[in-house]
Design brief:
Shape of chain A: globular
Largest sheet of chain A: 7 strands, mixed
CATH class of one domain in chain A: Alpha Beta
Radius of gyration of chain A: 22 Å
CATH topology of one domain in chain A: TIM Barrel
Number of helices of chain A: 18
Structural class of chain A: alpha/beta
CATH superfamily of one domain in chain A: Metal-dependent hydrolases
CATH architecture of one domain in chain A: Alpha-Beta Barrel
Strand order of the largest sheet of chain A: 3-2-7-16-17-18-19
Oligomer: homodimer
Helix content of chain A: 40-55%
Chain lengths: 477, 477
Amino acid sequence: MRSNMPKQFLSFILLAVMVINTSSPSVAAQSGKARADLIVLGGTIVTMDQARRIIDDGAIAIAHGRVVAVGARADIQKSYFARETIDAGGRMIIPGLVNGHTHIPMTLFRGLADDLDLQEWLTKYIFPAEAKNVTEDFVRAGTRLGLAEMIRGGTTTYCDMYYFEDAIADETSKAGVRAVLGETVIDFPVADNKTNAEAMAYVEKFVKRWQGDELITPAIAPHAPYTVSEEHLKAVRAFSDRTGAPIVTHISETKREVEDSLKAKNASPIDYLERIGFLNERVIAAHVVWPTATEIEVLKRLKVGVVHNPQSNMKLAAGVAPVPRMLSEGLRVGLGTDGAASNNDLNMWEEMDTAAKLHKVFSGDPKVITAQEAFEMATIRGAQALHLDREIGSIEVGKRADLVIIDRDDLHQIPVYGVYSDLVYATKASDVLTVLINGRVVMRDRKLLTLDETAIKKGARLYRERVLKSLAPTSPK
Amino acid sequence: MRSNMPKQFLSFILLAVMVINTSSPSVAAQSGKARADLIVLGGTIVTMDQARRIIDDGAIAIAHGRVVAVGARADIQKSYFARETIDAGGRMIIPGLVNGHTHIPMTLFRGLADDLDLQEWLTKYIFPAEAKNVTEDFVRAGTRLGLAEMIRGGTTTYCDMYYFEDAIADETSKAGVRAVLGETVIDFPVADNKTNAEAMAYVEKFVKRWQGDELITPAIAPHAPYTVSEEHLKAVRAFSDRTGAPIVTHISETKREVEDSLKAKNASPIDYLERIGFLNERVIAAHVVWPTATEIEVLKRLKVGVVHNPQSNMKLAAGVAPVPRMLSEGLRVGLGTDGAASNNDLNMWEEMDTAAKLHKVFSGDPKVITAQEAFEMATIRGAQALHLDREIGSIEVGKRADLVIIDRDDLHQIPVYGVYSDLVYATKASDVLTVLINGRVVMRDRKLLTLDETAIKKGARLYRERVLKSLAPTSPK
């Protein structure tokens, strides 16, 4: 299911060992212990490694943003010392959650319009609201709001598609959050770029600026096969081939999209994209609600990442993706919230809970999508869907130290009989206590350390007034 | 949709006016203002009255456990004074949520077994666990845990079916929570009663003890038409006719139940229950997943209360109840969580969110079950389903003062464009700040006032050890 250990991973371990062996004299002063930057001590570690090890009373040593050791508390304490220690006794430590699909600035449109047909929702509310409000400053304010909400809920990596993605990268980097950020390419004028040429030039500069960054993976995001021409899709793929940038897109979200594609292109969206040579192991496809069994084979063969958005698909009545089949076929399937305008939050806990329950009732089989599988989709499988599983998605030596510490003392979590059941069916975003990304503490004991929560709320409320004013004649409620 | 104003309601208003006019001399001292026990001041009041009024910067005056005035803050302040005032400025005040279906002590089995076929789940885990563990003390410990979780999430009324219901009533009353409590009648020996005669004697005593209580409505709970004989169901109905006690039951939960009923009784469960004269306006039926259009007519004509449990029905793959049709037919339909062993929490916020989303995707129509309808099912329609809408379910003069104050300052709730959208799609249990039941503050600023949270957690964890020990040879994970 997982790729073989990559070369860079092996080199890192060698490097880590070298660092340990050659570091400063204080190592000796600590009677042979190796130095780490930070040690998380105690608690139950849900590693999500290949063996799915769960370590009671464990510990994690972190150096240079990566996990250098994970194991029993006593063993780690014997071998490592660090200036900083986080006591996680009695708590649960999990890999940071991966939100595989967002339009992060749309937090500012949260609840602007609900309970509508997709077309009406888009054309009467969302598109006009975007046309009248989306500026770089709007995008920055919405991004900060979304980042704060995601950190608070234990999401450490997200994958985005929107406009002004360079500003989103800047805000995300400043907040210390990991992300795959896709700048939109679409065949009509949008907030930041008015032509395809402008968009491609933007992406060129954007990818050059951020590639190699420890947190930000810049990407190109053709909106969907029905809003971007074949020629432009091929140019996107060529750009990705040349730069190595991932491709973020929407595929097969609604039945109508499939029917329209069959009419216009004599092929379903996935068949069409395969035919024009668009799909490969750098593509991250959101939704994929309506693939046939043959198309699932195509996605598997071409190693396409798939992001399932159960709550958005339910709310917009898009349909139920064949996720149990995708999982049994071993596809790279993650979970996402979609934008806050169609969800209406960025809460991965509710997404896990919903994924497990939705597929049970839809298939009539209460055994499909177990709690463990739902949790996998939010962690290691989510990392696979973003093609980042060499770096994140589990707590393993050599991987980035993206960790979440969960409080286990709230009434709704008591008692606990099984770890995955507790995580998926009982734990809430409000139980997230402390969050580390790339070894850096970005939330400690529910206090955000890299974002100014008061200023973010104030800014969001100001934008609410502007949005309402801009839509005044057609305001929904 | 709502019943006409009942006589007792009118009498109450008269009483309230009399109380105001004849109360102590301090009325005069406050320059003609009437005395209330408590005033909730400021905030947005979501009344759920017949006009669905939403009052910005409102206030609510409470006396003798009931709402005596609700309106604009300035008007209430002009007319009432009270020793105690709760400042709800900037917050939202809603009617207390109604959880229409629980097995409250099963909180102690939360997450004991998941992702299994209903039969396997019941026969391999739940029934053995119950047989080996359920005592009156277990029921008390589980009830306290469930009460604490429900208060924290803004539930002020619940409807239960379990064993030792007299102990549940005692704990519920002590915690100051409102409930319809149904003592189980079932045709095999259970934890508290070994025969039908014993159960009927228990119910007789139980109903006599609690009838007339301000908080507790004692009820009789025949488990289901397939576990209670026709003779015993008729005796239940006769008991209810004689005492006026409501009847809590499960009807038409699974397709198999319907098929078995058709084979054994040549009638679906609802047809069968109508034929034997069981159904009336005192029946509260949980689930009702598989009714035909004709059967929906029967439920409507006989004024049966229906409780929809979307998350439980999803997790056990029971099916999707035809709730949009039930609502458009004007049935009395509420929402419930079911027991924590099959959900795995008692969270009405997630139930509302799920109800709205599930029916959209299942029907393919994003306009069914609007946010407002979902909120109605958790409040006024939920009260109708329990046949308690003369007393609770909305914030109106004469009704019981069951109120919940919601904090609106968490990141996931910002910005707000529509009240019902905010409540159903964005608000979480963790946003509940203060809870009043029958005019009494049972949680203030997230601190439980009628329950000892530390002792409850300790007790629940002790029972976890016992449950695991009792199941040791067949422990699930």
